Amino acid sequence: MIRLAAVVMVALLAGCAGAPKKSDSGPVPPVAGKPRGSAGQAGGAPATEGQAPPLACLQVREHRDEDYTPGGLYAPGVSDSAPEHALDISGLVEPVPQQEPLSRYGNRSPYQVLGRSYRVLPSAEGYVERGIASWYGQKFHGRHTSNREIYDMCSFSAAHKTLPLPSFARVTRLDTGESVVVRVNDRGPFHDGRIIDLSYAAAVKLGLDKTGTARVEVRALSPEGGAPVLAAATAPSVDDDARPRIIQVGAYRERANAERIAREIEQAGLRDVAIEAAETASGTFWRVRIGPLAVGATHQALERLRRLGHASPRVFSE
């Protein structure tokens, strides 16, 4: 049975940040076909149970097709920025490398952006590179990525010019040793000397939100034997944190949409599905969540959700 839990939360609508642009993001390479939409889905980051989504994660920009020219930049006259409010990433769980089919979109090779041609690698296996990392944020939050998922600046993701979509990588800041695991689902950055564009949350994890850019090592991760390992060396497992997990499948303006998604998930065999009401300054959103789940059950649930077409569920610790 679907549990309906009303969690009333009041949040102030975040305004556009007045901070100067920290990092330029690359554009989405041209793709064919109509985007696979997420109509009615609200921007918002993982939050602990009973708390409102962080103000930093509210979408403040409307995205229009006419703002993007194929092979060019997205809204070149609009500066990117950090959110006005601080983002707490303490409850955000890094993605776990797992086997995923190549995305239907975003893997065309070669592709051209700004007159330059790029070839997508046939595999992420063994990829290691050092160079400059940048980040992209509020300007792109809620927009389609190159593989037609929705960019969520409050999750650990990244854009890369040539890694297959999706891929997983560990990004290590060379001057501090701090690292973060990201899921690569976008293309960019299309700027000389930069090798990866991190989501805002990943930038906060490495301190790039303060420095703008930094020298990093990007090392591909691949699943092997059911556990995340480096493509070229062993990596620390993110499963050391054994706290129960909550999966947020999405947040919807219409309750009927949330109920339809919840029924679909239950019919696929998933348990502990709940619908929660979240009150924000922009209206009521209905969140579909699963859990709490053990770590192993979380991995299985995420795989089922992706097979159902939910490519970007959010996971956080209870």
Name some characteristics of this structure.
single chain, 318 residues, alpha+beta, 6-stranded mixed β-barrel, 5-stranded mixed β-sheet
Describe this structure in words.
The protein has one domain. The protein is 12% helix and 28% strand. It is an alpha+beta fold and 318 residues long. It has helices at residues 200-206, 208-211, 255-267, 295-307; strands at residues 3-6, 111-113, 116-118, 128-136, 157-159, 167-173, 179-186, 194-199, 214-224, 227-230, 245-252, 273-280, 283-293, 314-317. The protein is built from four helices and 14 strands. Strands 4-8-5-7-6-9 form a six-stranded mixed beta barrel. The radius of gyration is 19 Å and the shape is globular.
For the biggest sheet, the summary is: 6 strands, mixed, barrel
The shape, in one word, is globular
Strand tally is: 14
List the strand order in the largest sheet.
Answer: 4-8-5-7-6-9
- State mean pLDDT (0 to 100 scale): 77
Order of helices and strands: EEEEEEEEHHEEEHEEHE
Which class of secondary structure composition applies to the elements? alpha+beta
Estimated share of beta-strand residues: 25-35%
> What's the Cα radius of gyration?
19 Å
The tally of structural domains comes to: 1
